[in-house]
Amino acid sequence: MAGPTTVLSGIVKQVLSGDSIVIRDRPVDGPPPEKTIVLSNIVCGKLARRPTINIPNGVVDDPFAWQAREFVRSKLIGKEVCYTVETELPSGRTYGCVYLGKSANGENIARSLLEEGLAELRKLNTPAADKNATYQQLLAAEESAKSLGKGRWSSNQSSAVRDVVWSISDPKSFVDKRKGQQTRGIVEYVRDGSSMQLTLLPDVPGSNTFYNIMLSLSGVRAPVIRMEDGKQVPEPFGLDAQFFVESRLLQREVMVLLESSMNQTFIGSVLHPNGNIAEVLLREGLAKCIDWYLNLVSVPGAADAYRAAERLAKERRLRLWKDYQTPSLPSETSHVHDPNKVSPGMSFTGKIVEVGNGDNISIKSTDGVVRKFFLSSIRAPRPSAPFKEDDGGLSAQRGRIRLLFDVPYVFESREVLRSFIGKSVSCILPVGHRSTHSATLANPDCNSVNLRFGGCMFDSNTSITFVCVL
């Protein structure tokens, strides 16, 4: 005689489809183990799948497959449930029952799906079905949905199939059309702490078009998780950052603010009723601010909040900042004696190893130190919004980074300098030319940044005058 069925408990991490649920344990010193439960005795429609080499057109939704997924997701995601395991196949597939709440007396999810006409009951042979009280309850629920014409049993099947756009032909126009607008979305997959896959929900009444996009959070970068030889190779705290975002955003409905794009990867902000996930990651020491990325952040006050959150994590030496040491501001005289610094009157030789956007170069001197210099008296075109005099120049600081080929002459100016890569140069920094820029422009951890003018000669009759960032 079989013993009583063991009732297990956990928290719903993800709903793969109407009849497939991922349940995790509570975390203890890291991401917890998880188990996928397939609901016994019922079957729901299969969701759409993106195109592949073998299936170039992809797979469309079965009727009411999305509605079944959303029905279960809205009920269970992030909630505590209990479940029983009825069958475990050698393939690892596990069948069982899932109940909402802390006991098996809670709502039976399979029965609820049948009552709404979002699932179909698997047929058992008559003797086995007659003796199974639970099966009889499920059968009654299905018969009720059929009599009322609900879901799968309705006459209108075509309207229950989504139009899913997997690849957006013109990402830039897609972003421009939604610039400044918040779009509802559902986080489908968290690749790492600052990258996630989302389904953008229809923003026009009556529309049935859904967009599946990959989004990187603007202004920040979390440790990534790379795949090498089929195995996950995370950077330090990469799994922690991924779980941190998963436990808060995975399959939650969020507001998405698209700010830029790079090919098929979009850049933007993800806003939840509980806050901005990028700011929370920074505060917990699970991400770092990226200077050029901060120009893209369009949420009012968010860039300053990101900096403040990062400073707090540094002060507390959390996670990525566990070995952080507060930098000390060097004295004016220390530059003369530091071999890694350049000072007025100093000269050195080296080779150009890198160029920027057409007005800056990196030179590797004979002592092996790489120094970055900016050309003085000129300014190459920038991949950002144009300067506006009527706003005090604020638009230049907050300009959006655009693609290299979108801004006239950015590519050409860079190519001119790129032709000098690998050439030897002689650099001389005369005394007496210096200016000071605000720390927010280059180095947020210092009070000021000193700039000095100098000369760089490629040969006897060609020179470039530039600013040296100390």
TrEMBL record:
Single GO cellular component term: cytosol
Record-linked CDD domains: SNc
Domain TNase-like as annotated: residue spans: 6-155, 181-323
Cross-referenced Pfam families: SNase
Gene Ontology molecular function: nuclease activity; RNA binding
InterPro entries: SNase_OB-fold_sf (IPR035437), Staphylococal_nuclease_OB-fold (IPR016071)
GO biological process terms, semicolon-separated: mRNA catabolic process
Protein name: TNase-like domain-containing protein
Lineage per the UniProt record: Eukaryota, Metazoa, Spiralia, Lophotrochozoa, Platyhelminthes
